[in-house]
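Quick one:
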Amino acid sequence: MIVLEFKLKGKAEQYRIIDDMIRAAQFVRNKTLRHWVDNQGIKLVDLYKQCAVMAKEFEWAGKLNSTARQASAERAIFAIQRFFANCKRKKPGKKGYPQYKKHTRSVEYKQSGWALSTDKRCLTFKDGFAAGRFKLIGSRDLHFYAPDEIKRIRVVRRADGYYAQFCINVERKEEPVSTGKFIGIDVGLNHFYTDSDGETVPNPRYLRKSEKALKRLHQRVSRKKKGSRNRKKALNKLGRKHLKVSRQRKDFAIKTALCAVKSNDFVA
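Output:
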């Protein structure tokens, strides 16, 4: 199973419709959890049936594709199952009782409610919300995968735009090249890691370098009036900065780990 991510390019009205889709998915998830709270002892399978009930009872829930409603209900079901598993294992501390979501940022579709164009460069949503056609922007190519191999699509809202994640059911194969080297690494604070040969990889400290800029952006947000358009703009700039730092850290960690794995046959 691999996940390919593309940025969605559309019009401002289409992005507002995606926000409505995300709110509807959040409503279904919270309503499913509420039904479980009010009816203790029911089977988790019965929570799937509530999706059809909500579609008839609430107009905006009915606009969401049936598989998207099921995927939203699954989020509540997974939270309930995780809570019961922690109780059964007698996990110390809080057991993670399922909570209602307030700031959901994604909606998930299964194998219906969407369609790819013939050149697989555009994505169209076909449920009741009718978000329309979006252009897919990314470096990967979906031509290598059949439509049946795409099991799920998740639309994610971030500070710098909207993204579509394609979950593809394929087996990833890589031929290992033997190097005859073995290494042990120790992750620390002063250095990113130190290996058994005495070599160290410096910690880039992206967050520390961006602390002044983040502090300044936080101050700008606090000065704005709550609910105003200027506050939303300031929050967006702050979110973009946090997003950049997280991407820098993730990119460095992945590339460093890949280098260590490819350079050695065994890493401890």
